[in-house]
Amino acid sequence: MSKQDDIQFCQIAIQAGMVTQEQAKKCLAFAQKVENEGKTRPRIGSVFVKANMLSQAQVSQIKAAVAKRNGARPGAGKSVKKSRGRGGPQARGRGRGRGRARQAQDEDSGRRRPAAGGRRKVSKEMAWLYIGSGIGVIVLLVVMVFMILNASKQADEADKSNKELAKSNLPENNLEGDILEGAGDATAKGNGGRPQEVSKDSDTYKDFAGDKTTALTDAKQNFRDEQYAKALNVLTNFLSKNESNFKNWPDEKEAVTKAIEDLKSKFDQEIKNTLEDNADKPKDEQLKALERMKDLAKGATEFEEKVDAEIKKITG
After folding, report:
1. Which of 7-16, 74-83, 230-239 shows the lowest mean pLDDT across its residues?
2. Which residues, at least 6 apart from 252, have a Cβ–Cβ distance to it below 8 Å?
3. Cα–Cα distances in Å, from 161 out to 6, 30, 39, 156, 304?
4. Whole-angstrom Cα distance, residue 87 to residue 198?
5. Which phi-psi region, left, alpha or beta, contains residue 43 (left: φ > 0; alpha: ψ -120 to 50)?
6. Is 31 left (phi over 0), alpha (psi -120 to 50) or beta?
7. How far is CA 191 from CA 18, 27, 29, in A?
8. For the chain, what are the domain ranges?
């Protein structure tokens, strides 16, 4: 299959939900790398099978879909031979009659027609025309070779500048072993459901990182606005909704967990500051300040329990 067919193969596999976009990129990168080294480009279906991403039956289905999309038809291109002879005996007779009449006319005029198979003298104009045509063909071939080499060079440069393909960690040409280091652990059909290892250069991680930044920013702003429950819930909800992503990047889970602990410490400090600000006031004023904090923390059970503990200390 050509490079274009490989791309169509991957597009159909992704649309069918058989592989992920990251897996398709890594398999295409491996095939291109082998070809760039001057070796025979491996079949993209074999790459997926060796990486344990697709079965042979799935590969056959995708190949059939590629052929159908390209409009391949068996027996196309065959032409029907037409009979060279046209007309009946009368038409052929008329042809021979015209030939005899022309021969008699030439003999009367003293001219001799060249015998069949004899060499004809080529004029200078025709000779120069043949030479010019030959030179044009040579120039065209040289231009085509230059364009092909230039396109190959640009493809190599684009391949080197692609960060995802540069970090794919593919082996050189080991189709018999585990050809995709790390890719075999991706979660897809036929891989046994093992955890997926996704690079931090991938679009998946970029989207996750953007959501994490938004959650941390919202929590910080909510806490400044004294919306303590909302601040805590933003982070705890983000933590629970992204358990699958944290399997890929456990360090990110540690960062969010630390942010939650910092938020709890800040709330403890807010309680302490409230008690110190109202220490010289009557108990009613102290309880009123704590009840206000409890209302702001309503919805965050852990914060409410901390305020209740301080209220009990005052009321006995």
Report:
1. 74-83
2. 208, 209, 212, 245, 246
3. 21, 15, 21, 9, 54
4. 75
5. beta
6. alpha
7. 11, 15, 20
8. 3-72+158-183, 203-315
pTM, 2 dp: 0.36
Q: Are 90 and 29 in contact (CB under 8 A)?
A: no
Cα gap 267→293, rounded to integer Å: 10
Say what the pLDDT of residue 246 is: 84
pLDDT at 162: 60
DSSP 60: H
Kind plus residue range of the DSSP H or E element containing 13 = helix 3-15
Place of tokens 């994490």: 212
CB 231 within 8 A of CB 219: yes
Contact between 195 and 248 (Cβ < 8 Å): yes
Residue 160, token pair as written in the block? 């080197």
* Span 65-91, pLDDT tens digits: 888 888 754 444 433 334 344 445 544
pLDDT tens profile 18-63: 999 999 999 989 988 988 998 898 998 898 999 889 999 999 999 8
